[in-house]
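pls ignore typos typing on phone
flavin-adenine dinucleotide + seq
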Amino acid sequence: MIEADRPGAGGSGFPAGLATPRLDAGDAAIAGLYAQALETARHLYDATPGAVLGRGVLQLPQAERDRARFAKIADQPVWREGAMTVIDAAAAEHRLGEAQADGGLMMADARVVRPAAILEAWLEGTPVLSATVASIRRAGDRWDLLDAQGRIIVTADAVVATAGWGVEALLETGVLSPVRGQADWRDGPSVEGTAWGGYVAPTVGGLLYGATHTRGDVDLTPRDADSRQNLETLKARLPQLAARLSQEGGRRVAVRATTRDRLPVAGLRSDGLHILSGLGSRGFCIAPLLGEHVAALIAGQPSPLPASLAERVSPDRF
Ligand SMILES: Cc1cc2nc3c(=O)[nH]c(=O)nc-3n(C[C@H](O)[C@H](O)[C@H](O)COP(=O)(O)OP(=O)(O)OC[C@H]3O[C@@H](n4cnc5c(N)ncnc54)[C@H](O)[C@@H]3O)c2cc1C
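k done
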């Protein structure tokens, strides 16, 4: 494990994150991929001390057609019994503590997670080298990872580039693009995890809400305009909660790595390097399964993905 800054320096560094699947009413294969990913993620997080801040996430409709879409998704046979249910306005109000004109899609197996707890638990016993990888070159049947001065940081049998948006600078894939995001958080009142385009999630001492999406922007400085936008997004759905927010809190910016087809990049590239990036806004759901997939490829073990799905996420698919 080689880390330029510190674990959690990038997108995985917010006080809370939603582990929610990409919902796809049309593409059964992708629905199945995310259903299996959620199953893997949920079991791992539930077994990680301090990782779970909330069980279940309510997806609220953004448009009239979402009602029919939610019903179609809940009916997909890929989900565990009871994992996806359409709930009515009264049930949504009961969960959120304020009136909701429409119900929503209750994703019982989704989780609100605390990234810091996951990083701490999963990195226990793993030496983390502090260095920025500037280039990677073949060394016989191994790989040299070099810093900006051309010094060898480490020589390895296999390399997995998991540097988020940083993968692009390192490997010039040409398929990743950056989407800057800011989230804000406040101490005090909290609420169950809820998503509607915007989202709100419980943290250890309050709640986190957001998030902005600015394509092509990699500036990591927080902006007041983004904080205002996040507050407006929260107010539009949960006005009573927004009115009770304390003034104490914080905010942070990171860059998402996204792809044209909104699917991750995971697997072996034609040059022999492995990549696990392009996780977009779904890393907490999809990364554990894809991590097992990439590890299986390296170890020569059976992948948890069928070949058709391995192809859909392959670094060479573009
Ligand atoms: C505001 C915001 C809110 C989000 N909310 C959610 C959410 O609720 N749920 C969700 O699933 N996802 C969310 N995301 C997306 C989230 O960022 C990804 O899902 C996930 O955290 C990406 O993980 P990663 O390990 O691929 O990359 P990162 O977490 O970004 O980790 C990459 C690491 O690589 C290091 N690095 C980079 N370049 C190099 C190099 N050359 N050498 C060595 N190290 C390097 C960085 O320092 C960093 O620590 C959010 C993103 C943003 C911006």
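Residues 28-46 form the longest helix (19 residues). Residues 34 and 227 are 31 Å apart (CA to CA). more later
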